[in-house]
Backbone:
């Protein structure tokens, strides 16, 4: 052929839906053969060959248009896929609110625990204070009981002294009786010896003085004993009264302190139970928060993996689109050159017929 030379057999092939369309080769014009061209040089065989070539180029043009339609359909499918697979960012603000609420609850429980611990410490200090007061009152009561025991011992000693004085008094009284009896016997003996004469002046006066002295001694000891007894009883009664008042006062204070100690013990136990309950609530809230964090972390990891997968798919689609665009541009360039060649063939054919 003098105008164009075909280096290889041209063929068009493509995949499903027009994807991966390729053209194995293109027509290459022989520029040298176009020099000095005239209609007289075109033979009948060449004319038939050009007509066949024109038909083949028309078929190629039809295939190119089919590929363009396939590319348009592919672009529409890609656009629809992108619209249907748009990554929707989930709103985790609800979880954030729940987490913040749990954190606020934990902080509130921590503050309540601190307040409860402070109340427990105050209750312990108050209980220790009342315990100290109770021990002091108990020691004071023991001292009063010891004083009372000492007073009772002193009273017993005074009672023994009184008994000794009474025994001494009875002994002196018996001695006086014996002395009187002895005196009467001596008087009778003197009377018998002196022939019935009695010297009253000599014998009577000592008897009267002895009785008076014994009476004075007895009265003196009785008065001293009575005075000591009265003083001792008065002192003992005053001491007993004072001690009883102190014991009553201490017993009342001790009863009040026992009541307060009992109330503080009950309050302390109640606060301990409340603290244990708050600790349990805190542990449960912390466990719930940890579960939510783990769940959110797993869900976030899953979403991140999904996003990564979608990004990879999107990158592949972008690469496919770029390849398709490049192929489309290649086909468009081939189409343009084929259109020009077809026009050239038609012009030549029409010129020859004219």
Residues:
């Amino acid at each position: 052929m003098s105008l164009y030379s075909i280096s290889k057999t041209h063929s068009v092939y493509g995949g499903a839906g027009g994807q991966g369309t390729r053209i194995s080769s293109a027509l290459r014009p022989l520029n040298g053969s176009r020099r000095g061209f005239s209609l007289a040089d075109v033979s009948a065989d060449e004319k038939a060959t050009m007509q066949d070539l024109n038909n083949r180029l028309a078929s190629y043009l039809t295939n190119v248009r089919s590929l363009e339609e396939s590319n348009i359909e592919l672009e529409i499918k890609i656009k629809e896929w992108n619209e249907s697979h748009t990554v929707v960012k989930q709103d985790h603000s609800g979880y954030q609110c729940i987490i913040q609420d749990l954190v606020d609850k934990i902080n509130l429980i921590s503050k309540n625990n601190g307040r409860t611990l402070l109340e427990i410490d105050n209750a312990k200090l108050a209980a220790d204070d009342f315990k100290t007061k109770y021990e002091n009152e108990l020691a004071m009561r023991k001292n009063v009981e010891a004083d009372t025991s000492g007073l009772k011992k002193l009273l017993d000693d005074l009672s023994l002294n009184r008994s000794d004085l009474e025994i001494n008094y009875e002994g002196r009284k018996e001695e006086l009786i014996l002395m009187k009896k002895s005196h009467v016997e001596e008087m009778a003996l003197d009377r018998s010896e002196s022939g019935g004469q009695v010297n009253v002046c000599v014998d009577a006066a000592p008897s009267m003085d002895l009785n008076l002295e014994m009476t004075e001694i007895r009265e003196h000891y009785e008065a001293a004993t009575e005075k000591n007894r009265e003083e001792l009883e008065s002192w003992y009664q005053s001491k007993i009264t004072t001690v009883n008042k102190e014991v009553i006062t201490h017993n009342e204070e001790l009863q009040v302190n026992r009541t307060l100690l009992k109330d503080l013990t009950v309050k302390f136990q109640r606060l301990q139970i409340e603290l244990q309950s708050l600790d349990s609530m805190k542990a449960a809230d912390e466990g719930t928060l940890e579960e939510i964090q783990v769940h959110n972390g797993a869900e976030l990891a899953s979403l991140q993996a999904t996003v990564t997968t979608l990004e990879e798919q999107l990158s592949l689609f972008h690469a496919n689109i770029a390849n398709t665009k490049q192929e489309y541009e290649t086909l468009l360039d081939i189409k343009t050159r084929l259109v020009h060649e077809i026009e050239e063939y038609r012009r030549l054919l029409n010129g020859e017929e004219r």
The two ends are 22 Å apart (CA to CA). The first helix runs from residue 44 to 84. The helical segments are 44-84, 93-193, 200-353.
